[in-house]
Design a protein that fits this description.
The structure holds 2 protein chains of 2 kinds.
Chain A lengths: L6 H11 L1 H28 L2 H18 L2 H13 L5 H27 L1
Helix pairs in contact in A: 1-2, 2-3, 2-5, 3-4, 4-5
Chain B lengths: L1 H7 L5 E5 L3 H13 L3 E5 L2 H10 L4 E4 L8 H10 L8 E5 L4 H9 L4 E4 L4 H40 L4 E14 L2 H7 L2 H21 L3 E6 L2 E6 L8 H25 L7 E16 L4 E6 L1 H16 L3 E4 H5 L8 E6 L8 E6 L8
The chains are: A mainly alpha, B alpha/beta.
């Protein structure tokens, strides 16, 4: 579980913002994340480089906030690389990203409830 | 934790947060509210500019990656906006690369904080920025209060340099007759109150006619018409101001009579000509002023109002600048102290019934 969530980052977030608030914030993230994934897929289909980068960037930014290391690394790779010349490569990466998101979501909910 | 943060904060600020990501927005708002600030949230650069145009904020926290209008574009537009270019902006972003940070700073951002934000760092940087802004606002307010709108505008446009330039203008000196004996007969509080009312009225008349009060010493004041900004018809403007000053003093005396207080009388000297106008003093402390023969002459004329028993005296050049609506009385030539040649002196305002 350690490389899914950096618990030190998560605990610090709870200390500074309050555990109750962080529980809400995790909820907000889990509501927003499917939309960001959908944007990412749509941008890939439309070959829209700006939207692709922005969606990956948002996922990276949020997962860093919660210390979701593996998810952050996967999103960051897509943000920095941008659209791949071969769409299949990106689609594969998006499937892996979705798996990292699911894994992080479960871990975050568990941690946030304490 | 939350309590200690709130208790160490000095003054709440109005903050605008622009971030397209909901999680970021909520978290940033939470941190800032825990510090005691008032926070407004918007989702993109376009909405941020709209909001800034409609209400005052102390600081903007700006994300870079945003749809509609990104952070770079917002910075560029703020920089080009006269009313908003002094608004401090802290960029908060997880956009990577030193080049992006440099670009933000070059576009005028006060600071750059990488996301995820460290709460302690955010607080420290925010405090520093707000403190700087407070000092800047204070400075602006000081300049506005002590330097007149014209001088403040001149300072903002051309910057501050000691030294003068030759200008054509009109100078006015004014003071309260018998002020010294008045001060001896009344309490200091009464004197301050009298001076404050007097200056309020005189400023009203002078600035209303386009003049700039640049010196106040005791009961005396000096005003300039035609500098630092040129003023067409500066002689007539000064004469109009002088007549208005007499009217206001008459009204003020009526009020004083109701309180059983002595009336006051003023004397005004006005001279037109060339003068050297500019900032004199040191780099640390300077004042905007005018010097030259024209200034000396205006001071002499003001002192001479006592001798002639008329409230307003003008020199020939000032009189020549008046319109047909004003017809001063010819008081004949006077040789003033320090002058080799006689000056033609003209008087405006009511003629006293008896000499004295």
């Amino acid at each position: 579980m350690n490389d899914v969530i950096d618990e030190a980052v998560f605990t610090e977030l709870q200390d500074t913002a309050g555990a109750e608030f962080v529980l809400e914030l995790v909820g907000t993230f889990l509501e927003e994340a499917p939309g960001l994934m959908a944007e990412l897929r749509a941008a890939r289909d439309a070959a829209h480089a700006d939207n692709f980068r922005r969606a990956a960037h948002s996922l990276k930014s949020n997962s860093q906030t919660f210390g979701a290391l593996r998810l952050a690394a996967a999103a960051r790779a897509l943000e920095l690389a941008g659209l791949h010349p071969d769409p299949a490569t990106d689609r594969q990466a998006i499937v892996a990203l979705q798996a990292a998101l699911d894994e992080a979501a479960a871990a975050l909910q568990e941690l946030a409830r304490g | 934790m939350a309590e200690t943060q709130t208790s160490t904060f000095s003054q709440p600020a109005r903050l605008l947060v622009a971030d397209d990501n909901k999680v970021n927005r909520l978290l940033l708002a939470r941190s800032l509210e825990l510090q005691g600030h008032h926070v407004t949230l918007v989702e993109n650069g376009r909405l941020a500019l709209d909001r800034l145009a409609s209400e005052p904020f102390d600081l903007l926290l700006l994300d870079i990656e945003m749809p509609e209008l990104d952070g770079f574009e917002v910075l560029a537009r703020l920089k080009a906006d006269r009313a908003l270019r002094d608004l401090p902006v802290i960029v908060t972003s997880s956009v990577e690369g030193v080049a992006n940070v440099v670009r933000c700073i070059e576009l005028g951002a006060e600071d750059y904080l990488p996301k995820p934000l460290n709460a302690v760092l955010l607080k420290a940087r925010l405090q520093a920025c707000l403190e700087k802004k407070r000092l800047r606002d204070q400075q602006k307010e000081l300049v506005r209060r002590f330097a007149t709108a014209e001088v403040a505008q001149d300072l903002q446009q051309s910057g501050f340099t000691l030294g003068g330039k030759r200008v054509q203008g009109t100078v006015m000196f004014s003071d309260i007759r018998g002020f010294t004996s008045m001060v001896e007969r009344q309490s200091p509080e009464e004197t301050i109150e009298l001076l404050n009312t007097y200056y309020t009225l005189m400023f009203e008349a002078i600035t209303g006619a386009g003049g700039v009060v640049n010196q106040m010493v005791g009961d005396g004041l000096m005003a300039i018409f035609g500098a630092p900004l040129p003023l067409p018809g500066h002689s007539a403007a000064a004469a109009r101001a002088a007549l208005e000053m007499l009217d206001l003093v008459t009204l003020y005396n009526a009020e004083r009579a109701l309180e059983d207080k002595m009336p006051i009388a003023i004397g005004i000297g006005i001279a037109t000509g060339e003068m050297v106008a500019g900032y004199t003093g040191t780099q640390q402390r300077a004042t905007y002023t005018c010097i030259g023969d024209t200034v000396n002459l205006a001071a002499r004329l003001e002192a001479h109002t006592k001798v002639m028993g008329r409230a307003i005296l003008l020199d020939g050049a000032a009189r020549a600048g008046l319109g047909p609506d004003l017809s001063p009385d010819n008081m004949g030539p006077v040789v003033f102290k320090g002058k080799r040649e006689a000056t033609a002196v003209w008087a405006l305002g009511p003629v006293p019934a008896a000499a004295g």
